[in-house]
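REQUEST ID: PR-0412
SUBMITTED BY: lab tech R.K.
PRIORITY: routine
TASK: structure prediction, single protein chain
INPUT:
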Amino acid sequence: MTEQPRAIDEMNPDGVARKVLFVAGAGRSGTSTLAGIVARLGMHVPLPEVPPDDSNPRGFSEPQWVVDVHDEWLSEALVQVSDSRPSAWFDTGRICSREPARIRVSEWLEPHFAEHPELVVKDPRLSWFLGLWRVAAIRTGATPVFATMLRPPAEVVGSKQKYYANKLGSSHLAASWVNMLLHTERATRPAEGDGGRVFVRYEDLLTDWVKTTTALGHALDLQTIIHTRSDQIREVHRFIDPTLRRVSSSLDDLALPKRLHELTGQTWEELNKLADEGGDTVEAHRTFDELRAEYVDLYEEAEAISRSSAEHVRLRARRRALAEAAEASPHSLADRLPHDVRAAIPPSVRRGVRKALGRERDSSGDGQ
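STATUS: complete
OUTPUT:
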């Protein structure tokens, strides 16, 4: 009779090294599926978790604290979750370099190792702060390891449009995908103290999650996955839904501008190579450096050409805000002005302001 593999809690807990698996990638790329699988195989998602919703009824497998702190930092940096600006990485990078932020994260991580020596941290916002999390994990004596999910960009864009009611259009979402994945590749390259990285195709995960996850566990030396139990495997089989790939489309369906279409396709082609055995090479890194430089050039060119459009949007927003303020409280502006200031305003100007606010005085001279 074949001996059943031992679970992590049946092993000597002192012999299992601390590790944090960071699941990165664009939102709607399968990060929740991967995090959900490794959690059901025994890795620990720090509680409380983000509750399921209609966009992800099987759950997100992401810590609520992580989402909240990332939202706080993104708001401070004026960066969107799906931000297409290359300069956005400098804005979040300033937060990553702050010592108080690093201390805050390491202090949050530390007590969760009492629950389990191998943690999984996942959030679509994670890539913006990978440098910070790497440092914080190492400070707790843990080895950071990284798994980046890969899903065709057209499917990511289509899924975001379906579930998030995104109003910025396909070109913006495709550009933000390129921006996110190129930086994530750069941020997860081997560094001192790391324990490796893998790239996982969403399609491979749905087609044969056992083979794909086993390979991930051995590549990153995750003892929880290597020593999983048969009952845990059955639980994952119940979790995996063959229909999870609910959005299927091609890059041609997005009708992108020609250069963005080409760059998105090239980026996807090169990322796919990283998921193949032996594909993560120094030569590949150089190719991604070139793609990032090309994307920066493309974005700066588009930004320079579209300044008039951006200014027009700003002016429209300003006009709308002024109109809403006037409608909400038409008397508030005049009431805040001291009497001597109002008296110094020429009568013709006062009449013009009253007319604009719909407060013209009666022509009989009653003032009402």
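NOTES: The radius of gyration is 26 Å.
REVIEWED BY: pending
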